[in-house]
Amino acid sequence: MTAPTASKLAALMAARVVPVLRYTDAAAAAYAAEVAVAAGCTTLELTWTIPNVTDLLRALRDKHGSALQLGVGTVLDQQQAREALVAGADFLVSPALATDIVDLAHAADALCLLGAFTPSEVLAARRAGADIVKIFPADTGGPRHLAALKSVYPDTPLCPTGGVTEENMGAYFAAGAALVGIGSNLYDKAAFAARDTAALVAQIVRTREAAHG
């Protein structure tokens, strides 16, 4: 692992909570990103489902510079991976075993998180060189499933995503999660619809404090 990649990995692990922004409206995604930054988040995952996601990545990079670590999620193939890396992604996230994107990420000094659910899939992700294994969908098995995986892969950083909330996050950390990905559960739906920035920032700050507590 190169020094830049190691630095990115340390920053990602230190974040503990990674907002996963999955929107079909680019403006909503941009708003969600700025709310997260205002709440002190230093790492964001922008999913490929956001229209023109690479444009949003570049805009956030121009505005916040290296202070913000930006990843692109729901990456399914090499073409998407290349576009994300050219746009400046610090890390790639796939919901599945897209093992062919690992070397592309590492060649660009970026991290790669591969999705897995079963013990065999975790092993395949490890063998492919994934820096972190994303356990998805997390809520299908819950913290007990994560704990079982961690017991046989104690040295593999696991990131449960999918159904993680402020309320159950502690159980995932207790089960061995290195960090968690939280999507829409990070933003109160009514407050988001009303663009109540103060309420949303307070919610994310509370979640981040709980993760670091």
Would you give an account of this structure?
The protein is of the alpha/beta class and 213 residues long. It has a single domain, classed as TIM Barrel, CATH 3.20.20.70. Helices cover 49% and strands 16% of the residues. It contains ten helices and eight strands. An eight-stranded parallel beta sheet has the order 7-6-5-4-3-2-1-8, with helices on both faces. Strand 6 (132-135), helix 7 and strand 7 (158-160) form a beta-alpha-beta unit. Keywords: Carbohydrate metabolism, Lyase. GO terms for molecular function: lyase activity. Belongs to the KHG/KDPG aldolase family.
List the helices and strands and how they pair.
Elements: H1 3-15, E1 17-21, H2 26-38, E2 43-47, H3 53-64, E3 69-73, H4 78-86, E4 91-93, H5 102-107, E5 111-116, H6 119-128, E6 132-135, H7 138-152, E7 158-160, H8 169-174, E8 180-182, H9 189-193, H10 197-212
What is the CA-CA span between the terminal residues?
Answer: 30 Å
The residue fraction in helices comes out at 40-55%
Strand fraction equals 15-25%
Please tally the helical runs, counting DSSP H or I stretches of 4 or more residues. 10
Indicate the radius of gyration in whole angstroms.
Answer: 16 Å
Outline type: globular
Give the neighbour order of strands across the main sheet: 7-6-5-4-3-2-1-8
What is the N-to-C succession of helices and strands?
Answer: HEHEHEHEHEHEHEHEHH
Major pleated sheet? 8 strands, parallel
Number of DSSP E strands = 8
What's the rounded overall pLDDT mean? 97
CATH superfamily: Aldolase class I
CATH class: Alpha Beta
For the record, the count of structural domains works out to 1
Overall CATH architecture? Alpha-Beta Barrel
Residue windows where pLDDT falls under 50 for at least 5 positions: none
CATH topology: TIM Barrel
> By helix and strand content, what is the structural category?
alpha/beta
